[in-house]
Amino acid sequence: MICHKLQDKLQQELAKMKIFFMFMGPIKSLLKIQKYRAEIKLNPRYNRIYARGHIYWCGALNDGLDRGNQPYYCPIGWQRWSFYVTENFYEKFNGWCICYHGTKFSSGLSILLSGLKPAEIYAHGAGIYVTPSINYACHPRYAEVKLIQSSAQEKFFKSGEYVQFVLECRVHPNNINNIASETLKAGSTEIDSNITNDIIEWVINHQNKTVVDFNDPESSIVCTGLLTRVTDDHPGLLRESQWWYKSHLCNDPICCLLDIDRHYLQQKNQRRDT
Ligand SMILES: [Zn+2]
User: Which of 51, 152, 155, 194 is the most exposed place for a label (fewest CB within 10 A)?
Assistant: First the structure.
């Protein structure tokens, strides 16, 4: 029964997400969402696929745009669904840094609809926790892994595929209160080949608000898009996920959402290695 409810909930979530997947799609559905948050608009001109053969670069991007004092690395393997934020985006957000916030399916859209809440458990001080590393943001502790099972979802995914999503945000460097180390017990294990573990979490000034509304012109952080990753097999088997097994990873459904038993995944991963 609970399982059915969850499945229904997921279907609802995916039905809403579908809007992000069909750029310039049915405007009527988009208007329904806009009742909750009038400002969510898609900006398909800036949709991107980050992969070899699509949009791809090595090291920090050097395209002349000012993204604050922080480098911007290619989020390889991810697809970007761009939101319309404002006219003259590059003027207004000149000097703002790109960062990511991993989230669960059940909370993801409510975040999109209302803004970001400050963290409830905070290791590096109060604020909103984000990261410059897509590979850190997508750890299942933050970004839920979901297996696509239902035929109803097959219009958008193939059954048996796994999907994750991460919010792409912009923050002004003055609003980064703290740059600090990872909190997933990775120790000396490399999480991201571009970003060292000691600077992988950013704590953003939440301006003492319970929710930082993306639409507030004075907001310290804005959400500029949704990054999704769809994989044929579990993303825990990817080369870039190998650090998961040397850091925190558990079976607790309120913590790490793998959509597979953690020990089974690890065995499968070891078999793949040999
Ligand atoms: Zn966990």
Answer: 155
